[in-house]
From TrEMBL:
Keywords: Plasmid. The keyword Lyase does not apply. InterPro entries: Class_I_gatase-like (IPR029062), Divisome_Glycosyl_Hydrolase (IPR052177), GH (IPR017853), GHL6 (IPR028212). CDD domains: A4_beta-galactosidase_middle_domain (cd03143). Coiled coil: none annotated. This is Trehalose utilization. The keyword Acyltransferase does not apply. The lineage of its organism: Bacteria, Pseudomonadati, Pseudomonadota, Alphaproteobacteria, Hyphomicrobiales.
């Protein structure tokens, strides 16, 4: 068989192998697969999807090879077969990279009987049976099971099979473990008893978060060292989501994780498709140049976990393609080697084909934007993992508001902020970065002093890095306000009044007021600022006869300022991002967009016009600029699965021509043809007759 990808094949078994592992197939075997599945079908899937890398079930909870490690359970159907080895050989015959998957989150009864200390314990002192399969036991991720037993499995697989990496799934544990080992070690390290709740204000909870981070980080290092001692080119790759950046030391991730895998396999409920690409921005916010892979499930990702199922083809392709739009490498996963429903194969292949068409451009360019939203890592670290989405509502609201405005933007982690990283952007947005250190506030203050523009909302900088309330708003001098009270709420029936003529309150013709937020801080303004919106003091929402204002408007609801250095600032002392994300009120989207466009103080470098909802990314190199346009215009944008794709058009993409350059040519990379364009002064305009799901305008300069 000919190699699928000659470039990938040329990099086999080298330290840089992962750089050419750009399209992944993952097969998670089930226990009876050794006698049920067809390995040749899967080797054909590798080829049909243009995959050049595979992730294959090897061991941990169940071994799919003839393991010799004591107490390592192997499939009872294994017999004299080696399904893992068969698939490894098939992939290598195609010139593919190979990663072995292990899952250490549960054990069978024989291991539990021999080592009860391997079992996780709940806060009532009960060993934890598996929540979905009570015949087995949940493991403690912080003790001997992961630190003594699993290294034996990792070393055996690495030694006996031709692989490039070990990939671990569900390796981080499932909350606080109250086993005797964890109690003793945590008490000795921190002086605290293990926390009973996940209250971010509990010092024991915060201490546990730090202790867990340290334990798991050291485990990543140990497993990586074990792999490299056997195969120097190989690595241990932990399965990570965006929230995992809150759980490890950044320097250690840089050293031990050559690429990052995001296990956000699809959307659920009312989540939008753009959450796929958001993962890329979040990872780039901390690791700007590290390859990032997005796992896509072929089934619906709902709480009921139909893991051995197939969702619509449009949904699968859209999730893959939105990740690709923002630079993520595609990876699909299938649970169960038996395939009773093949409807997923074609949409996976279509999504992977889009990546193949864009791969050369993606590798030659880097993401760029004039706007950054701060990823509030310092704040989110203080929240329990399962509760962080609640804390992210403000950021999600700003994210969607900018998408509706067709404004491209990036993320920047507050933990990765430097003068240099901030200066890449014309405008920096802090949707609700409530916890910031003095040093982080100083970086933002200095950025504004150099002429950078800032937008902040809600409780930004009202607390220090540990979550303690400050006596004053740490960035009040930048925004021209003094805090008089922290946010209160939830408040019902609140309103803000348009005040004077200002670009930030334009577009509300016929309205004297709009709805306000539900969590309201109080501030006083200083001289030299403007207040385009003013708050109406609270009044009852029932009985209906009592629903009228009692007092005249007072207190700034939006504060704008032009700085001496030439920048602009906007401060909104209420939860505009969070309440927009919850309610999606058009007036709030307009207010966010108005604030952003005013703070930008000029024409954006890239403008897109047309009747649609688009998720836009911009990438560039020395001699080219690419605008990727992902079509979100769909009645299923907020409720999946997407039934079909609704093409939109026409559109016009306007791009500022760099000084001293001219347009050499323009291409539509997905359509595979030249683009129609014209130059007007210092701008090139490219016509797009239609966007189906994804199109990319590539302009080359001379």
């Amino acid at each position: 068989m000919k190699p699928i990808d000659p470039i990938a094949a040329a990099n086999l078994r080298t330290p840089e192998w992962y750089r050419t592992a750009t399209r992944w197939t993952q097969l998670t075997l089930v226990e009876n697969d050794p006698v049920k599945f067809d390995p040749d079908f899967w080797i054909d899937v590798f080829q049909r999807t243009r995959s050049n890398a595979v992730c294959l079930s090897a061991g941990g909870y169940i071994g799919f090879y003839p393991s010799r490690v004591p107490l390592h359970y192997v499939s009872k159907y294994l017999g004299d077969t080696d399904p893992f080895g068969r698939l490894v050989d098939g992939a290598r015959s195609l010139g593919m990279h190979v990663m072995a998957r292990v899952d250490p989150h549960a054990i069978h009864q024989d291991a539990a009987d021999a080592h009860p200390e391997w079992i996780a314990v709940d806060k009532d002192g009960n060993p934890r049976r598996h929540w979905a399969f009570p015949d087995v036991w949940v493991t403690c991720a912080y003790g001997d099971y992961n630190n003594k037993f699993m290294p034996q499995v990792v070393k055996e697989i690495t030694r006996d099979y031709d692989i490039d990496a070990i990939f671990a799934n569900r390796w981080q544990g499932h909350g606080v473990c109250y086993c005797e080992s964890c109690r003793t070690r945590f008490k000795g390290a921190t002086g605290f008893d293990l926390p009973i709740t996940s209250d971010v204000n509990d010092p024991a909870w915060r201490a546990w978060s730090g202790w867990r981070r340290d334990v798991l980080t050291r485990m990543v290092i140990a497993w990586d060292n074990d792999v490299k001692a056997i195969r120097p080119h190989a690595s241990f790759i932990p399965n990570m989501g965006g929230e995992s950046l809150m759980e490890f030391d950044i320097g250690l991730i840089e050293k031990h994780c050559p690429f990052l895998v995001v296990d956000h396999q699809g959307r659920r409920g009312l989540e939008p498709i753009w959450l796929a690409g958001r993962n890329a921005k979040r990872m780039r916010a901390t690791f700007r140049d590290r390859p990032v892979v997005l796992i896509t499930s072929i089934g619906p990702e709902e709480e009921y976990r139909w893991k051995d199922s197939v969702t619509t083809g449009a949904e699968i392709e859209s999730w893959i393609a939105n990740g690709v739009t923002h630079g993520m490498l595609p990876w699909f996963t299938k649970f169960n080697g038996v395939v009773p429903d093949e409807r997923w194969v074609a949409p996976v292949a279509a999504g992977f084909e889009k990546h193949e068409k864009l791969q050369a451009m993606l590798e030659a360019t880097t993401p760029t934007a004039e706007i950054a939203i701060i990823d509030p890592t310092t704040t989110l670290k203080n929240w329990a993992r399962d509760e962080r989405r609640q804390a992210e509502g403000d950021d999600l609201g700003f994210y969607h508001a900018l998408i509706e405005a067709k404004l491209p933007f990036e993320f920047l982690s507050d933990e990765a902020m430097t003068a240099e990283s901030l200066d890449r952007f014309k405008l920096v947005i802090l949707a609700n970065a409530s916890n910031l250190s003095d040093a982080q506030c100083a970086l933002l203050r200095d950025y504004a002093a150099r002429g950078g523009s800032l937008i902040a909302a809600h409780e930004t900088a009202m607390r220090d890095e540990s979550g303690n309330a400050r006596d004053a708003f740490a960035l009040g001098d930048v925004f021209g306000v003094k805090r008089t009270a922290l946010a209160r709420g939830p408040v019902k029936n609140s309103y803000i009044v348009l005040s004077g003529e200002h670009p930030v309150n334009q577009g509300y013709e016929g309205a004297g007021r709009i709805i306000g937020g539900t969590k309201l801080a109080e501030v006083e303004t200083v001289e030299g600022v403007q207040a385009p919106f003013v708050s109406i003091p609270d009044f009852p929402d029932l009985p209906m006869e009592e629903v009228y204002p009692r007092e005249e408007p007072r207190g700034a609801a939006v504060v704008t300022r032009e700085t001496a250095a030439g920048g602009r600032t906007v401060y909104i002392p209420w939860n505009i991002g969070g309440i927009f994300w919850q309610v999606l009120a058009a007036d709030h989207q307009r207010l966010i967009e108005n604030a952003v466009r005013w703070a930008m103080d000029g024409t954006p470098r890239v403008r897109v016009s047309g009747h649609s909802v688009l998720d836009i990314a911009v990438r560039e190199s020395g001699d080219m600029l690419a605008v990727l346009l992902f079509n979100l215009t769909n009645p299923m944008m907020f409720k999946g699965p997407t039934r079909s794709i609704y093409p939109v058009g026409p559109h016009k993409v306007s791009i500022a021509i760099p000084e001293g350059r001219s347009v050499r040519d323009a291409q539509l990379l997905i359509a595979g043809r030249k683009a129609e364009y014209r130059t007007k002064g210092d701008t090139v305009e490219v016509d797009l007759p239609e966007i189906e799901l994804l199109e990319t305008v590539e302009v080359r300069w001379s």
